[in-house]
Write a structure and sequence with these properties.
By secondary structure, this protein is α/β, with parallel strands linked by helices. The chain has helices at residues 10-21, 33-42, 55-60, 76-89, 106-115, 123-136, 169-174, 217-223, 241-250, 263-272, 286-291, 307-319, 332-340, 349-358, 441-446, and strands at residues 2-6, 25-30, 46-49, 68-71, 93-97, 119-121, 142-146, 151-157, 182-189, 192-194, 207-213, 233-237, 255-260, 276-280, 299-302, 324-328, 345-347, 368-373, 379-385, 406-413, 416-418, 431-437. The strands form four sheets. A six-stranded parallel β-sheet has the order 3-2-1-4-5-6, sandwiched between helices. A six-stranded parallel β-sheet has the order 14-13-12-15-16-17, sandwiched between helices. It has a five-stranded antiparallel β-sheet with strand order 7-8-11-9-10, with no helix packed on it.
């Protein structure tokens, strides 16, 4: 697929890496030569220095032939205008990044469609939606639904007192009454990610990625010694766009406090969010956090514009007994550090935005209906609808030479969802979840190609 990206900022750079790795034909436009040079030196992409509002630059980028035009510059007006121009010049689909949450209203989305913009993304709203979801699922670090909720991916950390430490995976599997309800499909250990086998052992501090159907979620949590807890009090540090959107989502569900250091901004937010207690103060002050009741807080969320502040404040919250901490971390180099410091959940807008946009790059030939890159791993999740002629349907799974760096984690057949075994044979119209390491992705896709 031919893809043009306007903007080589943080989101644009991350998208360029993801899409170039997927072997798309990527062109990046930006006014900053330094950002472009850095990209072209590390990726097999074309870069063009200039404004995305320049018709001559757009023509040089051959947007008339591009399948997808993505505008993610720092300037929302430029994103909208350049997307409209690209569409008029022949781009098949256009996506524009915006910063005004009102633009996400249905009537405004329809207006954008009418002027030639197929989709708009607001990364802060996407991040707030993820945070809201994680707040309500308290037994795991993260979780993601697939196949309309019939299968879910849970992310758990193995603590020092976990009952599964030292156990082989085949021993954990043997504890299940029904082997078709959940499975460990990936382990993050130190700085490496692996697709586990039955003779692998669970170690302290492992991050487990577990796929489960609805019937298996309760027994899965019991197996790994995880319990849900009630959430009443939430404290949010930082009235950034993500922080404001999160507070708005949560204000009618929980008792929410929002701490903002800027007095003028705090007053504006207090008028906007009438069910949120807005406090003007420096959230980096331990005395202020204690005074405002951090010891009685169930979930602490740090969404300032500074990753270091978010990590350190969550670490402080954890040290005084807060059950759940969520930090917005934009620097990829800090994500592993945040995990090691005991931060429960890390939110990264670049990854979230890339996952949202990536669905528009999925070709029809492989019938991939959705995909997700998993933060801090070298893995991707693919949701695939099975069609006639696919190699994956030819034999039982144990007889297929499926890549070792990948696993079929779940199958949806009609209204039933189950974990496949070696003697499972995939059938037409099934929907499968495939977890694949980056180096196995191309081989995996061959099993799901059709002649269409």
């Amino acid at each position: 697929m031919k893809i043009t990206i306007a903007g080589a900022g943080e989101v644009g750079k991350h998208l360029s890496k993801v899409l170039a790795f997927d072997a798309h034909d990527v062109t990046v436009i930006d006014v900053e030569e330094g950002e472009l040079s850095n990209l072209s030196n590390h990726l097999d992409i074309l870069t063009i220095k200039g404004s995305a509002l320049s018709i001559s630059i757009l023509l040089e980028a051959k947007v008339s032939d591009c399948d997808l035009f993505i505008a993610v510059t720092h300037f929302p007006e430029m994103n909208v205008a350049s997307s409209v121009l690209a569409k008029k010049l022949g781009a098949k689909k256009t996506i524009a990044r915006v910063r005004d949450p009102q633009l996400l209203e249905e009537k405004n989305i329809k207006l954008f469609n009418e002027i030639g913009i197929d989709s708009i993304i607001y990364p802060q709203a996407l991040a707030a939606r993820e945070i809201t979801k994680f707040v309500q699922e308290t037994a795991t670090r993260e979780f993601f639904d697939f196949a309309e909720g019939l299968l879910s991916l849970y992310v758990l950390k193995i603590e020092e007192d976990s009952p599964v430490i030292g156990k082989y995976l085949h021993e954990i599997v043997a504890l299940q009454e029904d082997l078709e309800n959940f499975r460990i499909i990936m382990i993050k250990r130190d700085f490496s990610t692996m697709i586990p086998r039955g003779d692998d052992v669970c170690l302290p501090h492992d991050i487990l990625y577990i796929i489960s159907n609805k019937k298996g979620s309760k027994s899965m949590l019991e197996t790994f010694g995880r319990k849900k807890f009630a959430v009443n009090n939430i404290m949010i540090l930082g009235a950034s766009r993500t922080g404001r959107a999160t507070a708005k989502n949560l204000q009618n569900l929980f008792d929410v406090k929002l701490i903002e250091v800027n007095e003028a901004r705090a007053k504006i937010i207090a008028n906007e969010l009438t069910n949120v207690l807005v406090i003007n103060g420096d959230g980096r002050s331990t005395d202020l956090l204690v005074e405002e009741g951090i010891r009685n807080t169930d979930v602490f969320i740090a969404t300032t514009g500074n990753s270091e502040t978010n990590i350190l404040s969550c670490y402080l919250a954890k040290s005084v007994g807060v059950k759940r901490t969520i930090a917005e971390v934009e620097n990829f180099d800090y994500i592993a550090l945040a995990r090691d410091m005991g931060i429960d959940t890390v939110i990264n807008k670049k990854t979230i935005a890339a996952n949202s946009i990536h669905k528009y790059t999925l070709g029809e030939k492989t019938a991939i209906t959705s995909s997700r890159y998993l933060t801090e791993t070298e893995a991707q999740v693919l949701e695939i609808f099975i069609q006639p002629g696919m190699k994956i349907t030819e034999q039982q799974l144990k007889f297929l030479d499926f890549p070792r760096g990948a696993v079929i984690g779940g199958v949806v057949r009609g209204k039933d969802a189950f974990i496949p075994k070696g003697n499972t044979q995939i059938k037409n119209s099934d929907k499968v979840l495939v977890f694949a390491m980056s180096n196995a992705l191309n081989e995996v896709k061959k099993f799901f190609e059709t002649d269409k």
